[in-house]
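Chapter summary example: a protein plus zinc ion.
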Amino acid sequence: MARRLETPSRIVTKSLSTVYTEYMESGKLDLSPPYQRAPCWTHDQNCGLIDSIMNNWPIPMFTIYKLSMADPSFALGARFECVDGQNRLRAIAAFRSGTPIPNKKGVDEYVYWTRPTDMKELKWTDLSDEERSWFNDYDVAVNIIQASMTMESRKAMFTSLQDGTRISASENLKNSMHPVSQFTSRTGLRDFLEPVLNGLMTASTQWIDVIADCASLWLHRDDADPLASLNRKQNELRRVLGCKKNASRNPVYKIELEAAHDATLFPLFESLVASLTEVKRGSTVRCHKFYVSLLFLYITLYGEAPPTEIIREWFASMTSAKIVAEGKAGKRDYDIYKILWNTLMHRLVDIGASGTDGKPKRHTVPKQKRNEVWTREFPGSTDGVCPCCEAPITVFNMEVAHIQAVADGGTNDATNLIPTCGPCNRSCGSEHLVSWCEREYPTAPLLRR
Ligand SMILES: [Zn+2]
């Protein structure tokens, strides 16, 4: 019989003024642990919560986790993190402190209470003394988890408290406060790209942060709690990636390549490492920071590494560009920005990142399933062979074919998928892959399975 997980916790009742001063004003409650979704409440939802409180209607219990000294945010002053009730707590803090908070569109707005008698929109400072004590004395239930839980199990608890269903890894990434989330959401990407593409050099610092975070998580993919190592490792990586020591004397940095690993923690960074490996397999690649940024951007945009020819082209442009300003971003950086612009700007429209009507490019088979299908056929290798025509294929250029076409009732289940070369996948059309092979390639490996 499965053992029931024990999570000793204490449910207490606290007044809102206590919750506000003890947890929020003091900075002791971390509202954005890595597993949390990005704040997603609208202005109306924020104000609606305050309205419930002022009307003395009940609101759901908050769940917070008591941190231990081993948690990275402990060193930053946090003693608790918010597992459930993040949006509610943000609205409460914004109203009580009189500080505007960003709405869904990123525009700062005050949280108001609309007084029903005169329909006035009131900030905290506009309330009467009596109304302030209504708010301050309102009691809420707080569930304080005191058992030691890993980040993974906190995440699992967060997920089950949301709506009872688990969220996927990519959705988690998208919703999390981790900086990589700005690349996985199209609006975040657009906001971020504008300054980059317009040549503001400061934006590159953010690139470095994101890549350093990904690299750090990737390097610690086998740890029980990879996030715990993040702070230790990321500063070091940031120095290396950002060429902080002396940009003019050390214009390139080195990435020590390891073989691509099957961990699923950061598939994006794995793609980065895998495509660098493709350029110069099994050795150290010397790269300019913008080159790696560019590659990373491409991978996040398209969900796959660019063709090797493009990588080589970027690599060549990078080495031929020159630095004109010592110690600062100079002509060389500018040249690489131009490459970034030329390569990506016109394609942004296609994937909808430019804010136009374009639809995002999508693989019919999700990236994770593509990887799963590839690993099943060619475990531990980036090279393989087409099961129909026997042409060499790689994890980068393969296509995932449906054995029974979707048009013919086939599913996206992994058992119905197989990596093939592009020409075979396209020529087969909606015909059954086996009968197509019997006609076109009677000796195909597929037919001997
Ligand atoms: Zn083929």
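Key point: The chain has three domains: 9-162, 169-352, 367-448.
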